[in-house]
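Response to reviewer comment R2.3. The reviewers asked that we include at least one raw input/output pair. We reproduce the pair for Chromosomal replication initiator DnaA C-terminal domain-containing protein here without editing.
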Amino acid sequence: MCKLVFEMGGCREGVEMIRSDARDMIVCEQRHAISWVARNYIGATFVQIGRALNHDHSVIVRSYDRARLLRKMDPDFCDMCDRLVASINRNTVQRTAARRGRI
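Raw output as returned:
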């Protein structure tokens, strides 16, 4: 879960912004994307996502619902989510290969 936050944040300041109470559109959409990916691809609970993002689970439920809506309406948001999923898949493949001594 934290890797999603770091992937989206890119640097310490970005991670702090995502975990903050900032409400500007870009940061909120990043949180929505993290919520959607964490729930659908990692299987994290809303409570776990909330802990990672430093928000109450009820905020995360609303964030997840917003993400579902945005995925239907906003191709750029879909792309952001898809890039996160691709990053998770890429990192999983690399870790698996490293454990098997292939990298």
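The chain has a mean pLDDT of 85. Helices lie at 2-9, 12-19, 25-42, 46-53, 57-73, 75-99. Further pairs are available on request from the corresponding author.
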